[in-house]
Design a protein that fits this description.
Oligomer: single chain
Helix content: over 70%
Distance between the termini: 71 Å
Number of strands: 2
Strand content: under 5%
Length: about 775
């Protein structure tokens, strides 16, 4: 069963790799075959329910980097299973939808490559039991989403949106990497299943906890578009509709929510969690609704409402009670179903009418009956109308707010206000374009989309009705195991549709009434362009735009200063900073200089050192290039003699060969150059001499200080000699060091030499061709 998990995830990746070739061979029909892969994975994930119900979790470990405590470990519990089912199920219909939406697109195979890579990365992330492995999949979702958002690469808007999403989420990914490393250090393990079972207070009691929490929250907030990083999500609607329906409603944007839920048991036992997570979620929830009320583009409205829902989920996790976690999981499932359907419906409307402007759209139900039915059911679920799963999620949301600690009526007031706005956005995006009278002519005559584009939304809507009328079934199989995994409790009350006459029901009724009232005046919100211009001027996106301009300009100035092509400047900066930093630190450290452990120099060795020093000084004072080259060669040969005197004949031979070859090449190269001149002033030469002398003194002091410490229990030479044969099966220690112990370093040197050789060969060929043409 555990091996089947790896096969299912690997099959998704392999399907993506094969997609471009299969598309060239079979054309657009390849989408129907590819859809079977996530469908089969969904069937396999369903089969894991019984095992998880019996054992609580399934775990598989494959050693990866055991010396660093990193392994390919996978862990499936109720939370992972919920995400596995959502990703694979919705992914199946997204593939079918893309087959119709991108019909005839020559890049369809490439699109499926990106899509399946993202799908596999998302599946891998939610089952990762190792923090480092989770980060790897996390970053892979970011890279693949960048490619998907920028799929229309010829459009500047798509490229800018993709870059913005990559930079914002990439920044969060770097923060998350640091946070996971700190978390692993605090816990003493990178295995998430082990960290979750640590005694209470192990993580939150650490002095590193605040920094760790902030870094992890940065990763989660950027991925799930929380304030102040919320601006990238509406802009990402430049992507094709299949991308919007998959990444930005059901999967990628919920990665941050998944991370918060996964680490909730070990991070929430501290006031800092509630002080940061809940307010950020509440602000994002309200901002999403406010931004959505001012939009006229269907996809932008849905994107802003997604912001509101993501803020709601984060708010519930910030509250952190068992009831709030349960409400979060129900809300997450309901949102995945209705928002994927609405995005697909919006894409179908755009595809078949050429328009997404709600001020123009109307009366489409006659021409697009199946799309209208799917969008209508999804919109009603999003609005929280009874007998739909959205209503159940809204009820539990209100119950969680009523049960939460905090300022009186604050969470309840914000929750009702945001839900009223969400009701208006749902009706505006899913009902009005289809069921009100037509407002104007669309660029293309409206007609029903291909069945591949409406079958998915219709099934999502039917499931929303089924789960809403009988929530107990999915509650027991999907929601309860997820809540148990997050809250770490044994018993979770069953989901119910009817809770009797209660305050939560009254709040739901107020939401419907307020939603219709807001809907009646929503046109006025869209007409308040000056007000929204003020909001735009205050948006954190302005900071992003400033940094996008300022960082390249700053880097250009720094490059011009530091990388200006002057070897003297490079040496001056390196040597100067070394002398400055070590010159300040060494006296403060108070480490004694130990002369007692120095070997007594021989007469030959001392004479060689004096010869090297004299040759170096003579090189600097030489008047001709030939004299300088010869003096520099004496320096190199003197070092070769020192290698020989201190039992390193192989290094001595190498040094002699290199120095001989260098001198010969220098002479050949400098033979045709003009006479050497003194270009630097006397003051500049004195400065260089002082700096070089200071650098030499500092390095000499460091060598003498090193004698004071026993850095290793045994010399490195002894370790390499002992491990040469048993570890690397070689008796020549030098060869073993180059080929085994320093294999990557040697490979890098070989690569550099190979690239240099290819470059020289290319230039020679180019010169030969130019002569032939002449």
């Amino acid at each position: 069963m555990e091996n089947g998990l790896l096969i299912a995830i690997a099959a998704v990746f392999l399907a993506g790799i094969a997609a471009p070739l299969l598309h060239r061979l079979c054309g657009d029909r390849i989408g129907f075959a590819l859809a079977l892969v996530p469908l089969a994975a969904f069937g396999f994930f369903l089969s894991l329910q019984a095992g998880i119900a019996a054992d609580g979790a399934l775990r598989l470990v494959v050693p990866w980097v055991p010396t660093l405590g990193i392994s390919l470990s996978f862990f499936v519990d109720g939370l992972s299973l919920l995400f596995l089912l959502i990703v694979s199920f919705i992914g199946t219909f997204v593939v079918l939808y893309a087959t119709g939406y991108l019909h005839g697109d020559p890049g369809l195979g490439r699109f499926f490559l990106y899509l399946f890579t993202f799908m596999g990365a998302m599946l891998g992330m939610v089952v990762s039991d190792n923090l480092i492995l989770l980060v790897v999949f996390w970053e892979l979702t970011g890279i693949s989403s960048y490619l998907l958002i920028g799929y229309y690469s010829k459009e500047e808007k798509s490229r800018a949106a993709a870059l913005q999403a990559l930079l914002v989420t990439g920044f969060g990914g770097l923060a998350l990497t640091a946070g996971c490393i700190l978390l692993g250090r605090i816990a003493g393990s990178f295995e998430i299943s082990e960290i979750l079972h640590l005694p209470a207070g192990t993580v939150t009691g650490s002095p590193l906890y605040p920094v760790t929490l902030i870094l992890i929250l940065l990763g989660a907030f950027t991925k799930s578009a929380q304030f102040p990083f919320h601006f990238w999500l509406p802009n990402a609607m430049a992507a094709p509709a299949p991308v919007s329906s998959f990444l930005h409603s059901a999967t990628m944007v919920k990665a941050g929510v998944f991370l918060l839920a996964r680490l909730h048991p070990i991070l929430d036992d501290h006031g800092l969690w509630l002080a940061i997570v809940a307010p950020v979620g509440a602000i994002t929830m309200c901002l999403g609704v406010i931004k959505g009320l001012g939009q006229t583009d269907l996809k932008k409205i849905l994107a802003c409402s997604t912001l509101g829902v993501l803020g709601t989920l984060v708010l519930l996790l910030g509250i952190g009670t068992e009831l709030a976690i349960k409400a979060c999981m129900v809300y997450l499932l309901a949102h995945a179903l209705y928002k994927a359907a609405l995005f697909m419906a919006a894409g179908s409307v755009d595809h078949e009418t050429g328009c997404r402007d709600i001020s123009v759209l109307g009366g489409l139900w006659r021409a697009m009956p199946f799309t209208a039915a799917a969008a209508g059911i999804a919109a009603l679920s999003m609005a929280g109308i009874p007998l739909l799963l959205g209503f159940v999620s809204k009820e539990y949301f209100y119950k969680a707010l009523l049960d939460a600690d905090g300022p009186p009526f604050l969470w309840e007031t914000l929750g009702v206000a945001a839900s009223i706005g969400m009701f208006s956005l749902a009706i505006t995006s899913g009902i009005l374009p289809f069921f009100r009278s037509a407002r104007g002519a669309t660029p293309k005559p409206a007609h029903e989309a291909p069945w591949t584009m409406w079958i998915g939304p219709l099934i999502f809507g039917i499931l929303a009705m089924r789960f809403g009328m009988l929530p107990g079934g999915p509650g027991e199989t999907l929601i309860t195991p997820a809540v148990q995994a997050i809250a770490q409790v044994g018993y979770v009350p069953q989901l119910k549709l009817w809770h009797g006459l209660s305050t939560a029901l009254l709040m739901s009724a107020l939401t419907v009434a307020g939603g219709f009232g807001l809907l009646a005046v929503s046109g006025r919100f869209r007409s308040q362009r000056p007000l929204y211009a003020v909001f735009a001027a205050m948006s954190p996106e302005r900071g992003y735009d400033f940094l996008l301009r300022a960082v390249p300009a700053f880097s250009t100035r720094v490059t011009q200063l530091l990388q200006n092509g002057s070897l003297r400047n490079y040496l001056l900066m390196i040597g100067g900073f070394t002398v400055l930093l070590l010159g300040i630190r060494l006296p403060a450290a108070g480490i004694p200089v130990d002369f007692s452990r120095m070997a007594q120099p021989s007469v030959l060795g001392l004479g060689t050192c004096l010869l090297i020093m004299a040759a170096a000084v003579f090189t600097c004072l030489a008047r001709t290039r030939f004299t300088a080259i010869v003096a520099q060669g004496v320096v190199g040969l003197g070092i070769a003699i020192l290698f020989f005197l201190y039992s390193a004949p192989d290094l001595a031979m190498t040094q002699m060969l290199v120095e001989t070859l260098t001198v010969v090449l220098f002479v050949l190269a400098f033979f045709r150059l003009p006479q050497m001149r003194t270009l630097s002033s006397k003051r500049l030469r004195i400065t260089d001499a002082v700096l070089c002398a200071g650098f030499g003194v500092v390095m000499s002091v460091l060598v003498l200080i090193s004698f004071h410490f026993d850095l290793l229990r045994s010399p490195v030479s002894q370790f390499l000699g002992e491990q040469s044969y048993p570890a690397a099966h070689g008796r020549n220690v030098v060869n073993v060091i180059l080929v085994d112990f320093r294999a990557l370093d040697t490979l890098g040197e070989i690569t550099v030499l190979a690239i240099a050789a290819l470059g020289i060969f290319g230039m020679l060929r180019l010169r030969t061709r130019r002569k032939d043409k002449a």
